[in-house]
Amino acid sequence: MKALILAGGFGTRLRPLSCTRPKLLFPIANRSMLDWTLERLSKSGIKDVVLAVNYMAEALQRYFGRSRYGVKITYSRERMPLGTGGPIKMAEKILRGKETFFVLNGDVLCEIDYRDQLKAHKKNKALATIALRAVKDTSRFGVVDIDDKNRIHRFVEKPKPEEAPSNLINAGVYVLEPTVLGYIPTGRKVSTEREIFPKLASEGKLYGYRYDGWWIDIGKPEDYVQANRAALDRVAGSKPVIGKNVEIHPDARILPPSIIGDNVRIESKVFVGQYTCIGDGCVLKSGSEVSHSIIFPHVWIDSFSSIQGAMIGEKVIIGQFAKIGEGVLIGDNSIISEKVTLTKNVTVCPSKEVDESILEPRQVM
Prior knowledge:
8-stranded parallel sheet; alpha/beta
């Protein structure tokens, strides 16, 4: 079987970090978002993956190459954004044949049993089977009206709360028969959720597969933070994970769950608190403190600086006695000068130098 992963999104709500990398290369507990998905597909027996790419496609191709975890990777590149359905149609020649295939939203992390979803799809003789998950707030998602046999009668994309037919939303993992490709128009932007699924539902050919496990749709910074927290609970819940060639001073403190990448240097009296990811090649100078934060690779954190609840992009320099507060996002290659304070929800665009404190939410461009 093949799986197509929709990997062309711009990640606009994750700027400025997405200004310099595609969303699927964002680290989750120091592994790229897409690594988590590819590994799970491999363990489920899927060895042939198509990446539907657009934004920063070259970065994905350089990073993943032609195989990963024993999975063969083929790239299908959009020259213009084609929505969620257009990329599936564009990959038709790669997906050709009579085999059922999976389609996954690349920015969804979950632990779905792909084999069990396929089994339910075959049992129902469906043309399409959507993984469904119950949520409290349905306004961000496609919502289904479903019967006790799991046949979907209506598919409503991002309804108002009072108009939602249920609390079961599209979880972004589909099993499709090749016949579905004939429902998708060629050469234009197509919304699977607004055009294809409603059509299949009206014909009684769309089914749901209910899933209640770990599931995160990474659209906003708070979703990205949640994904890292959930991953850290899984891999480092009782003991910090320490990479290769790491120098840690004896009086530094590192609390779990946290992860330290390869070639990191942690000096005396450094404190690394819970739910912290330190990327490869970072330096934490004496007396610095980092908690509840995501630190991308090759960041320099100078002496007695404090980072609490922030996301710091690659190759950023944090000066001495700087204070970085909750919700702050700092783009790659930026410099935060000594004694500067950035308070809640300040964002700094890539390659900027900030030499004065910012005490109210705003963007540094």
